[in-house]
Design a protein that fits this description.
Length: about 140
């Protein structure tokens, strides 16, 4: 695989992980939100679905975000009859966001992003060395 292809694959990976980081940040921002009125649903966690895609022009497989989907996990229920969004039984639905899971996902996405960035940097350095060799 030539260096341009390696850089294109890594750039696609960085773009996908960047989207994942944005979704994680949105999940964390809404981790403690509740519905505004009784009977409404609170924020539902979002997850990123990746997909392999063949770049026909470069003849390499890359990754892309297929879609941002909703997590189907049940909401947490907490008894708080004084809360404005409590139902008739006094329960409040809370988002299905677990901050610890989001932190782990964020760290994984960050490491993947950094690994792809290192591939691009190494490829760039190899290209620059090759150009320097050709100049002499």
């Amino acid at each position: 695989m030539d260096l341009y292809k390696a850089m294109a694959v890594s750039a696609a990976g960085m773009k996908a992980q960047g989207t994942r980081l944005k979704v994680i940040a949105e999940n964390l921002a809404n981790a403690n939100s509740t519905a505004e009125t009784p009977g409404d649903l609170p924020y539902r966690r979002k997850v990123v679905v990746f997909q392999n895609m063949m770049d026909r022009q470069m003849q390499v497989d890359t990754v892309r975000v297929a879609k941002v989907d909703l997590d189907k996990k049940d909401f947490e229920r907490r008894y708080d009859p004084s809360h404005p969004s409590a139902d008739a039984d006094g329960y409040v639905l809370l988002p299905n966001v677990n901050s610890l899971v989001e932190a782990m996902d964020m760290r994984e996405a960050q490491r993947s992003y950094e690994a792809n960035l290192n591939v691009i940097d190494s490829s760039r350095q190899m290209l620059m060395r090759t150009i320097d060799i050709l100049r002499t």
